[in-house]
Amino acid sequence: MSQILRLGKGFSAQVIYMIVLPLFFFAFTMLYDPFHIQEYYSFGSFISAFHIVMLSCILLVWLILSRTVFYFLNKELTLHWWQYALWCFGEVLIAPSFMALYTCLFRHEGNNYFGILATCFVFSGMSLVFPYVFLIMQQIIYNRNEDLRNKDLLPDKNLVRFLDEHMRLKLSIAPSSVLYVKSEFNYLKIYYLSGTHVKEYTLRNSMKSLGESVPPQVLVRCQRSYFVNPAHVKVLWKDKEGFIYADLDVADQPSIPVSKPYYDTLSALL
């Protein structure tokens, strides 16, 4: 549960939850009538199917709101599985509060909101646990299969693995070949040695995510937009304005800027 969440960062990954959960709730309650929900909603001038459709629509609207917010959080932050589990629990916990408001309105029992809330929580919570578990297990299985495929591609465990924003393996090279990494907007440019030539690889990911996935002895943060391999730093120097730079031991490479907060950490590794 403390592992980094590996859930698709695209919006389509959230649309699956928006669609599957309300459809499952409607189909499950109509086919199996759990906890006699159809009898409970047989009141007023509408049949129980109408009320269950309305509850499904309420769940749909709530999930659209919740999953849209989660999409932006997952896109910008590095989340863990335990945080995602709390988010899903919150969705199951809050959805019945809207269902209870609807139920109170039609049953004309506004003074019994919390009693109806408990009933709605049983109806929705116990019904939704199945699709939540299924979707989460499906994602875990997908991640494990991907890990197995990556292991087949990486017989050498000493290689440095560069992953994209979806935690998919995109580049693996020897630690001694990595020179530095530069950030440009939402992309990372990885500079590395291939024989005697310097090559560049562009990867969509964040500097924060890179710092968490690459061993610190291979790449060290030296500036807001730069990571550098200390094994290739030949010298640190300061210009007339007091700005610090790192020169690499590879010809024709630019000097890498070094911010003062990172200077001590980098210099201690040289």
Q: In words, what does this structure look like?
A:
This protein is an alpha+beta fold. The protein has 2 domains: 11-152, no CATH class; 160-268, OB fold (Dihydrolipoamide Acetyltransferase, E2P) (Beta Barrel). It is 51% helix and 20% strand. The chain has a 5-stranded antiparallel sheet. α1 packs antiparallel against α3 (48-76) and α1 packs across α5 (113-153). It is elongated, with a radius of gyration of 26 Å. The mean pLDDT is 87.
Mean pLDDT: 87
Number of helices: 7
The oligomeric state of the chains shown is: single chain
> Could you state the order of secondary-structure elements as H and E?
HHHHHEEEEEHEEEEEH
How many domains comprise the coordinates?
2
> Helix- and strand-based class?
alpha+beta
Largest sheet: 5 strands, antiparallel
Proportion of strand residues: 15-25%
Secondary structure tally: strands: 10
**What is the first-to-last residue Cα distance?**
37 Å
Indicate the low-confidence ranges by residue numbers.
none
Overall morphology: elongated
Helix content: 40-55%
- As a whole number of angstroms, the C-alpha radius of gyration is 26 Å
SSE layout and pairing:
Elements: H1 11-32, H2 37-40, H3 48-76, H4 81-107, H5 113-153, E1 160-163, E2 169-173, E3 178-184, E4 187-194, E5 197-204, H6 207-213, E6 220-223, E7 226-228, E8 233-238, E9 244-248, E10 256-258, H7 260-268
Antiparallel strand pairs: 1-2, 3-4, 3-7, 4-5, 6-7, 8-9, 9-10
Helix pairs in contact: 1-3, 1-5, 3-4, 4-5
